[in-house]
Amino acid sequence: MASKRKLEFEDIVSVTEASDSASVHGVVTYLSPVKKSKKGSNYFNATVSDGKTTCRLVGFKDSQQKKLKEAMEKKETIIFEDCQVKKAKRGLDAMEILLKRTTSIAPSPKKFEVECSNDDDKLVLVEEVERKKEFETVSLNAKVVKVMDAITVNMGKKVQYVTLADSTSTVRCSLWEKDVGTLKEGKSYVFRALIVKEFDSKVYVSKGRDSSICEIDDIVDNVEFQEPEIESTHIKLARIVAVQELNKYRCCLSCKARVEPVMEGLGRCSKEDCQMLQKYDVCPEQVQAKLMFVSESKFISLYVYGKLLLDLAGRKDTDISEEILLQLPVFHSIEYNSQDVIIKFLPESTAV
Ligand SMILES: [Zn+2]
Which end of the chain has fewer CB within 10 Å, C or N? Predict the structure, then answer.
């Protein structure tokens, strides 16, 4: 179990203890796009570094991913305030940083010099390499999963093939002459400006004159992503004392993200990779709220979405008002996850 104690980690090296409310300083050196887990929730992962060691980070909010992206582009040292630090499930003794919905990301007064930090060229996932054109250059974080014996090809040149992998795919990489024998199986590296080549209609990458390879901490991403364990917490005899947010919106017919009205009865999906234009009045209505509860004279703000909010308010439709929510009786118990999202509740009436 994570400790309830507030901890401040001055750098990544010191991130060795679990905490439910931690501050961590670091530089983002890798960032994935927002992905969908098997259970359908959005998440992204990243690597943060202090120049000496790295730590894996998992987040769930699109807006947090965007902030990290900006910071990574600027190579800025940032502070994650009120995040969770826990033991990584599969990473030996490694710790993992989990961003909560409330975790704030701000510039840190510290300035870490991070060697393998990203240049202007963007890191791509291994699966993206296949969609690149021949002779384009790519940079990626990958693990060497197979090293073949070097062979001698025409004009006596030596070449060695290695297989690179991340969580998305594998790709073959060729190393020539003096680079032969420089990569070790099981080690992870950041590869910069590799050249995309095609042979026999198979795409591979090759180390060219402008390419560079730098060893990094193990990327654990070559293992299939595991749903972060949702640890839930209860509050008993909880009463709503304030409605901090109550939003109604319409959701996309395709991806269920929020749809913004654009013109004459049309709406456009707000999700970057969807953007579908649709008839606004056909889109189903959805609700979300941020509610302040009091339980055992402590105040806590929790989020509740969609159908669960309707159930909580005892409504069949989305016709919910702040007044309705504030008039609800005391709840027997409210269960919420580490992201402060309500996952279950027990109304007073069923209390024994
Ligand atoms: Zn959509």
Answer: C
Q: What is the pTM of this model?
A: 0.42
For residue 252, report the distance from its CA to the centre of ligand 1, in Å.
Answer: 5
Closest to 118 in 3D by CA, of 197, 28, 185: 28
Q: Residues lining ligand 1 (ion), CB within 5 A?
A: 252, 254-255, 257, 269, 271, 274, 276
> How many domains would you assign to the chain?
3
- Residue 134's CATH number: 2.40.50.140
| CATH code of the domain in which 343 resides | 2.40.50
| CA 29 to ligand 1 center in whole angstroms | 30
Q: How far is the CA of 85 from the centre of ligand 1 (A)?
A: 33
Q: Are residues 90 and 160 in the same domain?
A: no
**Distance from the alpha carbon of residue 339 to the mean position of ligand 1, in angstroms:** 24
Residues 6+ apart with CB under 8 A from 204: 171, 172, 173, 174, 196, 197, 198
Q: What is the mean pLDDT of the chain?
A: 84
* Domain that residue 160 falls in: 126-216
Please write the tens of the pLDDT for every residue from 261-286.
Answer: 998 899 999 887 788 999 999 998 88
